Amino acid sequence: MELKALYLYAAVLAVLLCSSVNFIQSPTDVLGPVALLKPTPSSASDFGAVVSDAPFAVMRPESPDDIALLLGALSSAGPSPRATVAALGAGHSLHGQAQARGGIVVETRALPCDVQVVAARAHGDSGGATTVPAAYADVGAGAMWVEVLEECLKFGLAPPSWTDYLYLTVGGTLSNGGISGQTFKHGAQISNVLQLEVVTGKGEVVTCSPTKIPELFFAVLGGLGQFGIITRARIPLQLAPPKVRWVRAFYDSFETFTGDQELLVSMPEQVDYVEGFMVLNEQSLHSSSIAFPAQLNFSPDFGSKGRKKVYYCIEFAVHDFRQDGSSADHVVELVSGKLSYMRPHMYSVEVSYFDFLNRVRMEEESLRSRGLWDVPHPWLNVFVPKHGITQFKDLLMDTVSADFEGLILVYPLLTDKWDGNTSAVVPATPDGVMYIFAVLRSTDPARCGRACVESILAQHRRVADQACRDGGGRRIGAKQYLARQPSPAHWRDHFGSGWGRFAARKARFDPLHVLGPGQGIFPRTD
Ligand code: FAD
Question: Does residue 177 have its Cβ closer than 6 Å to ligand 1?
Answer without folding.
Answer: yes
